[in-house]
Amino acid sequence: MKVQGPSSFAAPIYIIVLLLALGAIFVVNARAPAEDDNPPELNRQIVQLYHEGKFKEAIPLAEKLVVLTKRAKGGEHPDTATSLNNLAMLYQAMGDYVKAKLLFKEALEIRQKVLGQLHPDTAASLNNLAALYWAMGDYAKAEPLIKEALEIRQNVLGQEHPDTAQSMNNLAMLYQAMGDYTKAEPLFKEALQIRQKVLGPEHPDTAQSLNNLAYLELDLGEIQEAERLGRLGYAAGVEAFSQILSFGSEDQRLAYQRLQNPYTLFAAFNDTDALMAGAVLHYKGIVLDSIIEDRLLAETGKEEANRDLVEKLNAKKRIAAQLSLQTTAASPKEATERIQALEQEVENIEGKLAATHPCHTAVLRIVRR
Predict the structure, then answer these.
(1) How many CA atoms lie within 13 A of 30 on its CB side?
(2) Does residue 9 have a pLDDT over 90?
């Protein structure tokens, strides 16, 4: 569970969104509490509890993992900083800001000392501490930390990197919260341009940028522009949501669907009741379609001739979905090209299955929007 940024300040579900954005999503098999001192096993269980929203139950395991990591690697090791960071995130999710702040600061100090001031992980720690101050309403302390994280990412990762765009987005959101719309708007626009270019028009982060800019335009009284951006953000979000549903259990998909509120922006516009209702039904329909498709695939997979194809299809869909959520790739362009290649492979396999299974052909007409 290496959760160390980039962060989103978008709100009550900040921590969960952060995990999803990094691709640490949908641990399918729940496990019993660890009975040994196996860090990977503890890691898996912490992630599982995290996804279930069982932060209180995850904390003792995360505390144990901190102790084990310190014992194995020392108090000043990058892995120790990561374990401290993750425990801090759990405390923040529980609303215990005092404990979270101490842990975030300890993780930051380790990274600054061991990795240096100009390291992406140091920037992530600065970002996470800023997010905590943001949650506490202390914007004055959050601002310099976000600026420092942005400067590090610009210098180390480059101007057109997803993490750089995330820092721009965070700083813009802070300025928006402070009511300084003049500073927020160019940052939102630049973050959107980077994400559209590097991640593509249908990535979750691109959808986030479109929606954030739409909310700002509402604050500025630009209703038509806000509606235009809101519709684009909704369309991008739907595509990203469909990708996420390429893996995970039925319960997990429904749980994730409940986290989504892609239609709330429409409430600010005139005469949008039908649009809101359609958006709600659309999202629920996507979940249902994905479940139906999986069940048909399971039936198709019982036929020996198709079993290998179904296994390949499921594997490639999982990889494509996870890559589409990953924002920290060393080469975003390469990751995008890999996703496109996987999507083409998925379509080719589905075409072969559709040729032998009429029911599967029908469900593909529903799911492929």
Answers:
(1) 10
(2) no
